[in-house]
Amino acid sequence: MDMPVEKGNQVSVEYIGTFEDGKVFDSTDEHGGKPLVFLVGVGMMIPGFDAAVLGMEKGQQKDITLQPKDAYGEYDPGAVHDVPLDKFPNDFKPEKGMMLHLGTPDGHHFDARVVDVQEGSVKLDMNHELAGKVLKFELKVVDYGEPDERWTHSCGPGCGDTCGDGCHH
Q1: Which end of the chain has fewer CB within 10 Å, C or N?
Q2: In the beta sheet, which residues pair with residue 123?
Q3: CB–CB of 60/144 below 8 Å?
Q4: Average pLDDT, the chain
């Protein structure tokens, strides 16, 4: 008999993520029907999702409800900033709702949403789009076991680097 999923396992999960009103915000079906593959307990997933698969077994299904603190955090009004247009390239044409992938001088990257465009500035919301929301997931563990070669790069599992082939570990 297999041991249940434990920290450090590579797990494959099928899921449907919904808001409290039942509206789907993400699912494995939206990603070509391929299961989500990640290492458990190394910070690759939101905390509540990561914790939910611990102890599950192959083929087991579970419904979970995550409060913001166990998902993408509470919405932080302090993460909304007015940025002067001269901080952007000259050909930048901001539009409300536009998502931007921005970088810092020290090499970190993050996403921001344009929430308002004013004369000479752009208001950016740097909260995750799911921050402050209660999220529900239907989970099914498809498979799990020891990590395979995609996680064994020189920096080790869970380092946060993205490989050239698109994997993230």
Answers
A1: N
A2: 82, 116
A3: no
A4: 88
Question: Is this prediction's pTM over 0.85?
Answer: no
Report how far residue 76's alpha carbon sits from residue 131's, in angstroms, rounded to the nearest whole number.
8
What's the farthest any 2 CA atoms get from each other in the chain? Answer: 65
Q: What 3-state class would DSSP assign to 48? A: helix
14-38 b/e with 16+ CB inside 10 Å = b?
bbbbbeeeeeeeebbeeeeeebbbb
Provide the token pair at 146.
Answer: 């020891």
Pick the CATH number of 77-125 from 1.25.40.10, 2.40.10.330, 3.40.50.720, 3.30.830.10: 2.40.10.330
Contact 121, 85 (CB under 8 A): yes
pLDDT tens figures, 28-42: 998 888 999 999 999
Residue 113 in this model has a pLDDT that exceeds 80 = yes
pLDDT at 166: 41
Q: State how far the alpha carbon of 162 is from the alpha carbons of 149, 150, 159, in Å.
A: 14, 11, 9
What is the mean predicted confidence (pLDDT) over 85-90?
90
Query: Which listed CATH number (3.10.50.40, 1.10.238.10, 3.30.200.20, 1.10.150.170) goes with 10-73+130-151?
Result: 3.10.50.40
